[in-house]
Amino acid sequence: MGTVETREPTSILGQALTRRERVVLGELAEDVTLEEIAQRLFVTRNTVKSQVRSVYRKVGVSTRAEAVAWARAHGIQ
User: What pLDDT, in 10s, does the model give residues 35-66?
Assistant: First the structure.
């Protein structure tokens, strides 16, 4: 019988990114607004904004460019 591989949540400083935060982080690399991300994900802009703030806090960045660079460095994109 084969082994089943599970992927651990991406984490930094002991704080794991949720599945949705990883999705939002991936969307940040696109040249789209938060409103457009919200429409793609069927949520409000405020929800996306909150998720983006949470991602920034968890990965220790303060800009979209830094978040995208972090995601690329950690294989999220």
Answer: 999 999 999 999 999 999 999 999 999 999 99
- C-beta separation of 55 from 68 below 8 A: no
Token digits of residue 75: 């294989």
Q: List Cβ neighbours of 56 (8 Å cut-off, separation of 6 or more).
A: 62, 67
**Cα dist from 8 to 11, 17, 47, whole Å:** 9, 10, 24
Burial of 77 (0-12, 13-18, 19+ CB in 10 A): middle
Question: In whole angstroms, what separates CA 28 from the centre of its chain?
Answer: 8
